[in-house]
Amino acid sequence: MPFVIYACALCAFAFGLSEFVVIGLAPALGASFDAVPAEVGQTVTWYALGVTLGGAILTALTSSMSRKRLLVGAVLLFSLVHIAMAIAPTLLSVVAARFVSGLTHGVFLAAAAATAAHLVGYERAGKAVALVFSGLTIALVFGVPLGAYLGEHLSWRIVMLSVAVFALVGAAILAKKVPYEPGVKAEVTLAERLGLLWKPELLAVLLVTVLSYTSLFTFYTYIAAFMAEVMHASEVFVGLALLAFGVSAVAGNLFGGWLRDGIGSLNASLYVVSALVVISVLIALLIALQVGAAKTEVLVMLVLAGGLGFVAFAAVAVFQSRIIEVAQEIAPHSSDVASGLNISGFNLGIVLGSLLGSAVISHLGITYLPYCSALVGLASLLALGVQRFSEKRVASAAC
What is the number of alpha carbons within 13 Å of residue 10 lying toward its C-beta? Predict the structure, then answer.
């Protein structure tokens, strides 16, 4: 793999660390600004909103730029925002900085994934995209516990400065190693770039991403409460389940790239979504059938939590490479916009999943979470089935 892809993975780790470390720093932020948890939680909400807007709309607005300038510029702005965050006088200014940071996150990952796929070509695009996102998955594993530890032993402001320095190093590497390519030609207008966001072919792929991540986060957002209330698991086992999810996510991300390159993005998507549905059904059966002793059920749940993490991040490389592949077929110079659209789709799925899970708990009860997760997953599988049928029909007509 070209060294540039490893540099993008390094920067992705910085972005992921910023995203997840704040969760562990929440108590320190609350104490610093005398804020309640709900107010501190806005730092997470507005970051996710920034990623969503940055991934889709801002990427379309900046897609005429050279990828080198876009990558380096996004990381530099990210770094400057963290310096500002480190000296922020109020929680509101921290929240505002987090929103801007999320914007740069969405733009960077969109451009980095498209750049990685472009550099290695179609045959190895899955592995290249997976490698970029490996930085994010590693940050997922270590970000929250690292934030909690540093929040107790260091000022959260020092942590923000450290992230800024880390990003500056990444920006310097990108500035030196990313090959310069001119931006999109002037005849590709802003209206045409924004119009790519409404292409039916891209929206079909996006629908699968949104539904799959809604399915996942309908359950995973509340996995700690589910294990504690339904399975009567101890805090130790809940922590092990979260660790199993995170560690498996790293392996799943790399596996997803390998799977896509081996069998194609559409077939890989079918495997990944099918696995997601199967795991959701198994969790529901585990509770419904009350298999074995309570401790046995908890141990099985640890394995299933690891499976969820594996599938969730195998989907990242598969879905991301698929939308880039489809974009290249329908419009030149559209891979960055499509990549950003899909990143927004992941975040939209997370938001919708958490909202759906909350509604399920309020109206049906927490035990129904895996059932609802499986139903949404089946909807995603159905959408994929329609896409596969359409592609086969088009191929037959061409013959």
Answer: 16
- Give the pLDDT confidence of 339-388 residue by residue, as tens digits: 788 888 888 888 888 888 888 888 998 889 999 999 999 999 999 988 88
Amino acid, single-letter form, for residue 343: I
Kindly write down the DSSP assignment for every residue of 53-118, as one continuous string: HIIIIIHHHHTTS-HHHHHHHHHHHHHHHHHHHHT-SSHHHHHHHHHHHHHHHHHHHHHHHHHHHH
Q: Which phi and psi (to 5°) does residue 381 adopt?
A: -65, -40
At residue 119, φ and ψ (nearest 5 deg) are -70, -35
Calpha distance 96→39 (Å, rounded): 13
Question: Of 10, 27, 78, nearest to 50 (Cα)?
Answer: 78
Residue 155 makes CB contacts below 8 A (sequence gap 6+) with 28
Instruction: Kindly state the tokens that stand for 95.
Output: 């929240």
Residue 271: what residue type?
A: Y
Q: Helices H, strands E: what count in the chain?
A: 16, 0
Q: In one letter, which amino acid is 134?
A: S
pLDDT in tens, 222-245: 888 888 888 888 878 887 888 888
Give whole-number Cα distances, 225 to 47, 144, 222, in Å: 24, 18, 5
**Are the CB atoms for 150 and 25 separated by under 8 Å?**
yes
3 state SS of 209: helix
CA–CA separation, 26 and 44 (whole Å): 10
Instruction: Answer whether 170's CB lies under 8 Å from 11's CB.
Output: yes
> Residue 232: enclosing H or E segment and its boundaries?
none
Global pTM reads 0.79
With beta carbons less than 8 A apart as the criterion, state whether 97 and 84 touch. yes
Which token pair is 22? 């704040």
